[in-house]
């Protein structure tokens, strides 16, 4: 084994309150799991930002190493699928919430929960995608499974300049869909058009209460925002359309009516990345490796160090981050 000490983003809560700081640990302190991974990159997802800033009940036990996602190289394995030197990705499964996570130089992870890094992706690119991008791909798969095809009509992406939204716009654009991006950042229009949006609309148009059925516009929707935005997106979805709901950046409520479902046959497809079965993850990652333009991925990325992660998490929750943040760990 190479490194025995490593740095990690350590979250703690006690009599003195909550703290998030970088500290050194010894490999021997890691709780047991069958694969030891030297992590090269992690990332900041929305959920990581909630955990690191102690907003929202993400972390279930303290102390915790933050980070739901990691990518790197297997150092040791007792799992039959993995051997030293294999390159792997980890997303979700409660890591960084109930078990020590991946904003760290080393992690012990469960072999059953790892996905092989698909060619031609590097660990940095995989974390540029991260849970946000892999969730965007799960949304695209949901649309495809409901029969949505390029050329069928406009696809709306909400929260478009965020992590899920940016990757969804780039993927759908590359696959030939006509994408309308909804964003609250006026200066993100060029960025979204370069990623693949044909049109950019102000998210304020979708944020306020509207009629239960509105002018039919979207063949499909990828929604990272929830709440009133999702309700309006449903109300504007064309007859027989499908809406993939994966997020709650505006809110976790759904203050709407059943009208789009019972009068227009609209489908609301829920998308979860955290406990998605391994086969579905592998399919999503294969498709990401095939369909995502890596130049466009690079244009969404900002690279930071572990020491910058606490400040960046607060910026992300304040809505000041465009695209995806990768965290270099070695
Ligand atoms: P980001 O913070 O990167 O992006 C969220 C985007 O939503 C922002 O960039 C902003 O885009 C928009 N937004 C922020 N606040 C509001 C608001 N009050 N009203 C309307 N829009 C808003 O987060 P991610 O992309 O990483 O995640 C997006 C959502 O998806 C989160 O809720 C997250 O928890 C969820 N998620 C769910 C997963 C699952 O398994 N189901 C997996 C991954 C994420 P803009 O400025 O362009 O409008």
TrEMBL record:
<dbReference type="InterPro" id="IPR020843">
    <property type="entry name" value="ER"/>
</dbReference>
<protein>
    <submittedName>
        <fullName>Oxidoreductase</fullName>
    </submittedName>
</protein>
<dbReference type="InterPro" id="IPR014188">
    <property type="entry name" value="Acrylyl-CoA_reductase_AcuI"/>
</dbReference>
<dbReference type="InterPro" id="IPR011032">
    <property type="entry name" value="GroES-like_sf"/>
</dbReference>
<dbReference type="InterPro" id="IPR036291">
    <property type="entry name" value="NAD(P)-bd_dom_sf"/>
</dbReference>
<dbReference type="Pfam" id="PF08240">
    <property type="entry name" value="ADH_N"/>
</dbReference>
<dbReference type="Pfam" id="PF00107">
    <property type="entry name" value="ADH_zinc_N"/>
</dbReference>
<feature type="domain" description="Enoyl reductase (ER)">
    <location>
        <begin position="14"/>
        <end position="327"/>
    </location>
</feature>
<dbReference type="GO" id="GO:0043957">
    <property type="term" value="F:acryloyl-CoA reductase (NADPH) activity"/>
</dbReference>
<dbReference type="InterPro" id="IPR013154">
    <property type="entry name" value="ADH-like_N"/>
</dbReference>
<dbReference type="InterPro" id="IPR051397">
    <property type="entry name" value="Zn-ADH-like_protein"/>
</dbReference>
<dbReference type="InterPro" id="IPR013149">
    <property type="entry name" value="ADH-like_C"/>
</dbReference>
């Amino acid at each position: 084994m190479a490194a025995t000490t490593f740095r990690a983003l350590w979250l703690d809560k006690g009599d003195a309150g909550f703290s998030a700081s970088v500290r050194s640990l010894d490999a021997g302190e890691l709780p047991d799991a069958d694969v030891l991974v030297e992590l090269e990159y992690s990332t900041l997802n929305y959920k990581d930002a909630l955990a690191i800033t102690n907003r929202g009940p993400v972390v279930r036990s303290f102390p915790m190493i933050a980070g739901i996602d990691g990518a790197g190289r297997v150092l040791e394995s007792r799992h039959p699928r993995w051997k030293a030197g294999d390159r792997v990705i980890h997303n979700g499964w409660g890591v960084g919430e109930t078990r020590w996570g991946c904003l760290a130089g080393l992690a012990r992870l469960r072999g059953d929960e790892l996905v092989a890094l698909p060619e031609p992706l590097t660990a940095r690119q995989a974390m540029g995608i991260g849970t946000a991008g892999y969730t965007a791909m799960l949304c695209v798969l949901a649309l495809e499974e409901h029969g949505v095809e390029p050329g069928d009509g406009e696809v709306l992406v909400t929260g478009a300049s965020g992590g899920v939204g940016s990757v969804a716009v780039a993927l759908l654009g590359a696959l030939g869909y006509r994408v309308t991006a909804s964003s609250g950042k006026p200066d993100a229009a060029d960025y979204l058009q370069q990623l693949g949006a044909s049109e950019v609309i102000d998210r304020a148009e979708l944020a306020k209460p509207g009629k239960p059925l509105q002018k039919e516009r979207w063949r499909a929707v990828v929604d990272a925002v929830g709440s009133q935005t999702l309700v309006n997106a449903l109300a504007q979805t064309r007859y027989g359309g499908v809406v993939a709901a994966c997020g709650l950046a505006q809110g976790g409520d759904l203050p709407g009516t059943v009208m789009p479902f019972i009068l227009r046959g609209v489908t609301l497809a829920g998308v979860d990345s955290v406990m998605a079965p391994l086969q579905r993850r592998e399919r999503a990652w294969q498709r990401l490796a095939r369909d995502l333009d890596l130049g466009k991925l690079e244009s969404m990325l900002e690279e930071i160090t572990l020491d910058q992660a606490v400040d960046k998490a607060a910026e992300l929750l304040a809505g000041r981050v465009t695209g995806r943040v990768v965290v270099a760990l070695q």
